[in-house]
Amino acid sequence: MKSMILKDIYNITHNMRSLGLLLVMFVFIMLPQGGAPGYITTSCVLCSMMVITTFSFDNMSKWEKYALVMPVTKQDLVAAKFIVLLIFTAFGAVSGLVLGIIGGLILGSFHPADPTEWLTTAAVAGAGICAGIFFGSIVIPLLFRFGAEKARILSIVAFLIPVVLGLLVFKLLSMGGVVITDKLAFTGLCIAPFLVVIWTFLMFWISCKVFVKQEI
């Protein structure tokens, strides 16, 4: 398991320069508009999508055929991808926090003397990790079923559906007179990790079912 995880991390280092440049560019694009919270969330989701690139490398090298010769199961291969997703998303949260705070200090939108800013930023980082894992776990079953190239297109649809549904629910709540208070938002942040864990296990189960039925 450890070797499979390290394999993906080593492979993705080839794209780290372009990813780092992209994250720095987003600092100057997003921070003036939405501040650090929007940038941190974007960083988490963007880094979580690196898992798609690992599937591209695997498909090109016929990795699955080689891996299954070794004493590993298809469930091990699926589990390794979900662990890699968690690592990539955590990296996105850390890099988003560091670059977001530095960019906020430069632009004057982050005030380190205010404790609430630190608490808010930490909460947003947690929410960003949840968002990255949520969206990334949607893509992994598609990647196992259709391969990296087809799944890239389907992943866009997979992202849009929950976003549109979320906006629709928010709109319906607003029309019904329901106000999203700070207390309600805090409750949502507390519940989100548990929901994401359940969702991730569901996507893991689906991925195993899909991959086990495939002929390698």
Automatic annotation (TrEMBL):
The chain crosses the membrane at residues 12-31, 37-57, 78-106, 118-144, 156-180, 186-206. PANTHER family: MEMBRANE PROTEIN, MEMBRANE PROTEIN-RELATED. The keyword Membrane applies. Signal peptide: none annotated. Keywords: Membrane, Transmembrane, Transmembrane helix. It comes from Eisenbergiella massiliensis. It holds the Pfam family ABC2_membrane_5. This is ABC-2 transporter permease. InterPro entries: ABC2_memb-like (IPR025699).
